[in-house]
Amino acid sequence: MIDFSWTEEQRQLQQKILEFSRQELNSNLIDLDAQEAFNWEGWRKCGSLKIQGLPIPKEYGGMGADILTTIYALEALGLGCKDNGLIFAINAHLWACSLPILTFGNAEQKQKYLPQLCQGELIGGHAISEPEAGSDVYNLKTVAQKRDDKYILNGVKNWVTNGPVSNLYIVFATVDPSKGKSGISGFIVEANLPGCTLKRKISKMGLRTTQLGELVLEDCEVPAENLLGKEGGGMAIFTHSMEWERGFILSSAIGTMERLLTTCVDYAKKRKQFGQSIGKFQLVSTKLVDMKLRLETSRTLLYKVGWLKKMGKSILMEAAMTKLYISESWVQSCLDAIQIYGGYGYLTEFEIERELRDALGSKLYSGTSEIQRHIIAQFMGLGR
Ligand SMILES: Cc1cc2nc3c(=O)[nH]c(=O)nc-3n(C[C@H](O)[C@H](O)[C@H](O)COP(=O)(O)OP(=O)(O)OC[C@H]3O[C@@H](n4cnc5c(N)ncnc54)[C@H](O)[C@@H]3O)c2cc1C
Question: Does the residue 269 lie in any domain?
Answer without folding.
Answer: yes
